[in-house]
Amino acid sequence: MDIGVPFKDLGPIDAAAAAEHVKAMGDDAWVENTFRQDVLADSAHSVTKSILFRHEWRRWENPWGVNTLEELIEKWAAREKLDPTPFMPVDRQETDEGPVYTFPDWPKHESVLGPLVERAIDYLRTGTGIVTRLALVMLPPGAYIKPHDDGQHMAHKAHRLHVPLTPSPGVEYKVGGKKFGMKFGRVYDFNNRWRHSVRNKGKRARVNMFIDYYPDPGLYVPPPYGHL
Asked: Which of 77, 89, 107, 145 is least enclosed, having the fewest CB within 10 Å?
């Protein structure tokens, strides 16, 4: 969302338990499900690794030529010679912009990461708001996310929150020509509609929790009066 400035430091957050949880995860956790990186992420984010928890789906606006997210998972799984069943969503919520899906990894991590998400969105919480995207995203040492702006429709409507889960003083963010760093124990509202880039100059991976929060969704209206 364009918040009018490169970023806002919303305030403190107790991320200690979540940070320990992430630290204890093995390398395999980052490659067990590559659907986000292989299909949903754009080329600028190809240098990252991620664990996907939630993602929205716009039925009437997708570049893959399928009707449902489930179909997209099936196509990806067939290409990778995988059984699609373990990757299928476990829950969905309807909004005026289409469904928001919850993925199988979330129940595995919810007890620790769920409270972190709730505390983060407290800074922006509305009576009807919904988390439309949720993921852990790792940026390896030396990696560079090239300048880009997030062009998906929901980027116009949802706040992109970053919660650092590793102390990463060597990570440099640049948004709208302004350079800054993110500190562990803070929540940031990040302007992903302005041109931005990220470079990890440090010797350790950066792990952030990404939270897209749509503060004012409307009710989904099915056809013939809603979107097809």
From this structure: 107
Average pLDDT over residues 109-138: 95
What per-residue confidence (pLDDT) applies to 219?
65
- Rounded distance between C-alpha atoms, residue 150 and residue 156, angstroms: 9
Phi-psi domain of 177 (left: phi exceeds 0; alpha: psi -120 through 50; beta: other): left
Task: Enter the pTM of the model.
Answer: 0.92
DSSP 3-state of 36: helix
7-214: which CATH number, 2.130.10.10, 2.60.40.1930, 1.10.3720.10, 2.60.120.10? Answer: 2.60.120.10
Mutual orientation of helices 105-121 and 16-24 as an angle, nearest 10°? 150
Distance from C-alpha of 103 to C-alpha of 82, rounded to nearest angstrom:
16
Rounded CA separation 73/56 (Å): 14
In this structure, are residues 204 and 189 in contact, taking their beta carbons and an 8 Å threshold?
no
- Mean pLDDT value of segment 112-129: 95
For tokens 């030396």, name the residue.
142
Parse the chain into domains and list their residue ranges: 7-214
Q: 3-state DSSP: the chain helix, strand, coil percent, rounded to 5?
A: 25, 30, 45
221-226's contacts with Cβ under 8 Å and 24+ in sequence apart are 221/96
Rounded Cα distance, 157 and 144, in Å: 26
